[in-house]
Amino acid sequence: MFQEYDVIVVGAGHAGCEAAAAAANMGSKVLLATMNMNTIAQMSCNPAMGGVAKGQIVREIDALGGYSGIITDKSMIQFRMLNRSKGPAMWSPRAQSDRMRFAEEWRLALEATPNVDFWQEMITGLIVEGQRVTGVKTSLGLEIKAKAVILTNGTFLNGLIHIGEKQFGGGRSGERAAKGITEVLIDLGFEAGRMKTGTPPRVDGRSLDYSKMEEQFGDEEPGKFSYMKTKPLQKQRSCWITYTNTDVHDVLQTGFDQSPMFNGRIKGLGPRYCPSIEDKINRFAERDRHQIFVEPEGWDTVEVYVNGFSTSLPEDVQYKAMQLIPGFEKAKMFRPGYAIEYDFFPPTQLNLTLETKLIQNLYFAGQINGTTGYEEAACQGLMAGINAHLKINEKEPLVLKRSEAYIGVLIDDLINKGTNEPYRMFTSRAEFRLLLRQDNADLRLTPIAHEIGLATEERYQLTIEKMHGTKTLINDLKQKKYKPADINPKLAAIDSAPVKDKSSLYQLLKRPDLKLSSFEQLDDTFASYREKIAPEVQHQAEIQVKYETYIQREQENSEKLANLDNKKINPEFDYQKITALSAEAREKLLKVKPTTLGQASRISGVTPADVSILMVYLAK
Amino acid sequence: MELDTIVALATPAGVGAIGVIRVSGGKTIELVNGIFKGKDLASAKSHTIHLGTIRDEDVIVDEVLISLFKGPNSYTKEDVIEISCHGSPYIIQQLIKLILSKGARLAHPGEFTQRAFANGRFDLAQAEAVADLIASENESMHRAAMNQMRGGLSQEIKNLREELVHFASMIELELDFSEEDVEFASREDLKKLIYSLKGLITRLTESFTLGNAIKNGIPTVIAGKPNAGKSTLLNALLNEEKAIVSDIPGTTRDVIEDVINVEGIAFRFTDTAGIRTTEDKVEAIGVERTYAKMKEASVIIYLIDMIHDTLDDIQQQIAYLRDLDIPYLLIGNKLDQAKAEIQQQLAADGALFISASQKQNLEDLKAKLKELVSLDDFKTGNTIVTNMRHYESLQQTNDALDRVLNGIDQQITNDFLAMDIRHALHHLGEITGEITTDDLLDNIFSKFCIGK
């Protein structure tokens, strides 16, 4: 019934979809197996993509030839560039998506990808020969062969949903949990853990009184995620902001004794930075209000997402408390909030390619690795798809460096440090934040993706044009020099300080108060020159010139780090032999099996002294 | 990628017969050639030794031997020069300062080894046997550093770092959670915090002068007119014939130094040429140097010849001393043959009377000397920075903090402030050797001794 596939992807969420698309676009024959073909690419939580650090990841996915950026551009209903008042490293794109359109666009994109087949059924087991996976087993008892398998089971592995004291099995509200895989993996020798996350209630937008809320508009000139020629939004929908109050908190507290969070029924660790409303009240008792974002779920639907009100309290408590929020007095609830517990596998059991150390050609991506967030999941899926394809074609793996991409930071953190709570990306996790900007993900990554055959020629050419355009523009700015006598009166006219010596536009652009557009006031010919240059090229040149010294400093620091990251270690190195290492370091090194000295140095529990001893031995 | 040029003392700090300063990096030969008078090092063969002088402009700093190793046949695989100079801490410091001023950077601990490794030179097969030794050396170094040399430094740095980390996290909060309804620290509060951090750093860096003094001896100049008995006194204190002693005034034409331990405090005594107007050019230089030395000194022992000096002379000399505004001991020498009127006058000025040749009252002199140097910080157990590298790291922390302050004033956005705070943390990390996200490389090698 089935051919032998190159890659089977289990699960069709953000990770699974990216994995399938990447492997297929590189030339692998892919089977995407999902329990329900009607829920491909569901946004299980809020209907939004991007945000601080996450938006940068989506840009990176797009630059590498993934689909998340394009799908978001096609399905968004609002776009905002967050942190615009901060430096360029902090600019973070965020979009509200039409939840149904998002899933639909993904499904259409996958259907349009020639090498992707679909199969709707629960995958319950793996076929393993020796220490290599060779296929999957299904609930119907079918066996499907493949050269590589990517598991992206999300929150479905033994998923358990909690609403107050009620609990029932499920991978998402209204969907079954996945059984079997966890047990199979444990039998194979994997270590499993338990995590939890939660989601807020959804309500009927027609029942809300928006006059009592603040309106949050999209950007006046909306941007987009993809570097390809997708279209920016022509019209947008607003979000709304309101606040809880002490009355709301009092009602919520009446349900605390029935809360699975507080009565100990939930064992898994939840994310500290995305707490439930009961958690917020409990931990920050001094605050008398919490912010609530009211987010529309799409262009046409009346359903509304109550962001900030994640809860697993009994549904009647949720309902009563919600009615005390300004604007929610008459709110009709569509779906209650709930908490979900699920199995994950500590990611220290993976290589930097996301292949498991125990079983060859088996890859894990997404929430199964203890992460949270669509973007975090999607980028892991993408990297697993790429690396599965490279592996079965006996090519060098693709491992992104920490100084190259947030994706590199994320995977390096997971593999070396593991995680105790759902791992979410923050910009502060990146030591070279200034290099990892949303404006230059294409410059950083598209050439790499083109080389491995994932980024299309069209995408590559767009990147090359931007690269050359930026260089030419900066050069031109250096050539355009003006004498003080000529330029100073014009500078005075736009309230900028006079120059002492002959100065170039390049020098003037470094001033915080001047932009490329300001130069039209300094030189009559500049307007006609500028209008021929693509806006993204202008933006790129402005950033590169304005922040040149900072960027250079970061570059130098990252190169220092690279020295150590270039020192390879044989993963099979026998650390037991080195008695000079501390016992903890020996144990951690044996477990993680680092491939470079830099990686070894980032493992928690490995001290600088251990690394220097290691170095002596490695030189042997 | 060509790495920058680094310099460090390769031999142990302190007085020795010779000191070896090592320079490595792409600009090594060009840099040393610029200050070395002798053979042209660019055209010289690798693995050769050259005699010459190192000059700061026209002033000879020292006569040295240059060992030339051209990359890749060197320890680091880069161009390496080892300068063997006279082993005085002063000379070494001057040489290193000079090399730094020409564009080199002070090496981090173990950075030469790090480069050897980075450049693929590091064949440590033979080092395997000593790996355990290195580890144990680290541990004792670590303990020694923690307990003795650093004293409270680690703790103070740790406190500093904690405050900075707090600061940094407030900034990061604002960056990563700008969309959330949290209150951010005011810029004014951040500024206040930085000022208090800078205050602490300033106190630590200022203690470096004292720390240096404790480590290398308090610079003490013995001055006076020719033949006032300066060399005799130094010899009496040293108990050995080091300075050239004679009855001919002006015998001591150069500066002679030695360190003497006076009741647990090291004094670095400098004998100087006598002060007088002279036609002799060589001696004139000596006199000039004496003035220069006196101005640099932490303490001056000023000798009055109670046989030959006149009252007018004495008044003039005391007036000059007072103008210098440096702690001094006024000593009436030649007590055994002193003129009564002179001694009377000096007594009124609070002088102490000795006879250097008879070794009379030397114990009083030592006691007074110890009294004079008030090592308050030393006594009260305040943290003292004694290590040049720590000093440099503190300076760099301070520079980074200045950039933060500057940034706040210029309303630079927080992501750039965060960068400078990370730099400050990084430099503090160089002292305590703790790991932060961005100081991996340095930390890895921090357990290796500098210059190794």
Automatic annotation (TrEMBL), chain A:
* Residues that hold NAD(+) according to the record: 270-284
Q: What is its main location?
A: cytoplasm
Q: Which SMART domains match?
A: GIDA_assoc_3
Q: Does the keyword Transmembrane helix apply?
A: no
**What residues does FAD bind to?**
G11, A12, G13, H14, A15, G16
GO MF term set: flavin adenine dinucleotide binding
Q: Which GO terms describe its cellular component?
A: cytosol
Query: Per the database entry, which stretches of residues form a coiled coil?
Result: none
Query: Which cofactors does the annotated protein need, by name?
Result: FAD
A Pfam family the protein falls into: GIDA_C_1st
Q: Which residues form the tRNA uridine 5-carboxymethylaminomethyl modification enzyme C-terminal subdomain domain?
A: 545-616
Q: Which UniProt keywords apply?
A: Cytoplasm, FAD, Flavoprotein, NAD, tRNA processing
Q: Could you tell me the Gene Ontology terms of the biological process aspect for this record?
A: tRNA methylation; tRNA wobble uridine modification
What job does this protein perform?
NAD-binding protein involved in the addition of a carboxymethylaminomethyl (cmnm) group at the wobble position (U34) of certain tRNAs, forming tRNA-cmnm(5)s(2)U34.
Please describe the quaternary structure of this protein: Homodimer. Heterotetramer of two MnmE and two MnmG subunits.
Family, according to the entry, reads as follows:
Belongs to the MnmG family.
Name by which UniProt lists this protein: tRNA uridine 5-carboxymethylaminomethyl modification enzyme MnmG
Species this protein is from: Marinoscillum furvescens DSM 4134
* Gene, per the UniProt record: mnmG
UniProtKB/TrEMBL annotation, chain B:
Q: What is its main location?
A: cytoplasm
Mind listing the UniProt keywords for this protein, alphabetically? Coiled coil, Cytoplasm, GTP-binding, Hydrolase, Magnesium, Metal-binding, Nucleotide-binding, Potassium, tRNA processing
Q: How is the cofactor bound?
A: Binds 1 potassium ion per subunit.
Picking any one GO molecular function of the record gives:
GTP binding
Q: Name one GO cellular component term.
A: cytosol
Coiled-coil regions listed in the entry: 355-411
Q: Reply yes or no: does the keyword Coiled coil apply.
A: yes
Stretches assigned to the TrmE-type G domain: 217-374
Where on this chain does (6S)-5-formyl-5,6,7,8-tetrahydrofolate bind? R22, E82, R121, K452
Mind telling me which PROSITE patterns this protein's record contains? G_TRME (PS51709)
Positions of GTP binding: 227-232, 246-252, 271-274
What is this protein's function per UniProt? Exhibits a very high intrinsic GTPase hydrolysis rate. Involved in the addition of a carboxymethylaminomethyl (cmnm) group at the wobble position (U34) of certain tRNAs, forming tRNA-cmnm(5)s(2)U34.
By sequence similarity, the record places it as follows: Belongs to the TRAFAC class TrmE-Era-EngA-EngB-Septin-like GTPase superfamily. TrmE GTPase family.
Q: What is this protein called?
A: tRNA modification GTPase MnmE
